[in-house]
Amino acid sequence: MKKIISVFLVLLIAIGSLYFFSRETFDRFNPLLTEEYVFAEVQGEPSDDNGRYKYDLEGINESKETKRVVFSASTRLEPGTFVRVLAKGTYSKQYEMINESEMP
């Protein structure tokens, strides 16, 4: 019985660590999360992500709920650019530039 409890605790700690340290990977494969579009405006400067530009933005989904999205791009986006990001939790699958009129 002690062995079963020990194994269960180790698995629980491993899953918790995976979620805490790599939430993006965890969200990518989590079947309980659904993909949704998040609309945001690029503000400020991107951070370096191994030769790519990493953006951390606050946006809204189609239900007008505030969401945080993180994505990287191979080109630098100008501040004021509007983007639509296909996100699943903190994992961002793709992004595309849109016009302001397409914002919800």
Question: What would your notes on this structure say?
Answer:
Strands 1, 2, 3, 4, 5 and 6 form a six-stranded antiparallel beta sheet that branches. The chain folds into two domains: 31 residues; 72 residues, OB fold (Dihydrolipoamide Acetyltransferase, E2P). By secondary structure, the chain is an alpha+beta fold. Helix 1 packs across helix 2.
Helices and strands in order:
Elements: H1 2-21, H2 23-29, E1 36-41, E2 47-49, E3 52-61, E4 66-73, E5 82-88, E6 91-98
Antiparallel strand pairs: 1-3, 1-5, 2-3, 3-4, 5-6
Helix pairs in contact: 1-2
InterPro entries: DUF1093, YxeA-like_sf
Protein name: YxeA family protein
Pfam families: DUF1093
Keywords:
104 residues; elongated; 40% strand; 26% helix; 6-stranded antiparallel sheet; OB fold (Dihydrolipoamide Acetyltransferase, E2P); 2 domains; alpha+beta
User: How many strand segments?
Assistant: 6
CATH superfamily of the largest domain: Protein of unknown function DUF1093
- Uncertain segments are none
In percent, how much strand structure appears in the residues?
35-45%
Which range best describes the helical content: under 10%, 10-25%, 25-40%, 40-55%, 55-70% or over 70%?
25-40%
Largest sheet: 6 strands, antiparallel
Secondary-structure content class: alpha+beta
Q: In the CATH scheme, what's the topology name of the largest domain?
A: OB fold (Dihydrolipoamide Acetyltransferase, E2P)
Which series of helices and strands comes N to C? HHEEEEEE
Q: What is the molecular shape?
A: elongated
CATH class division of the largest domain: Mainly Beta
Total helices: the number is 2
Number of domains: 2
Distance between the termini: 55 Å
CATH architectural type of the largest domain: Beta Barrel
Protein name: YxeA family protein
Organism: Shouchella lehensis
Pfam family, one: DUF1093
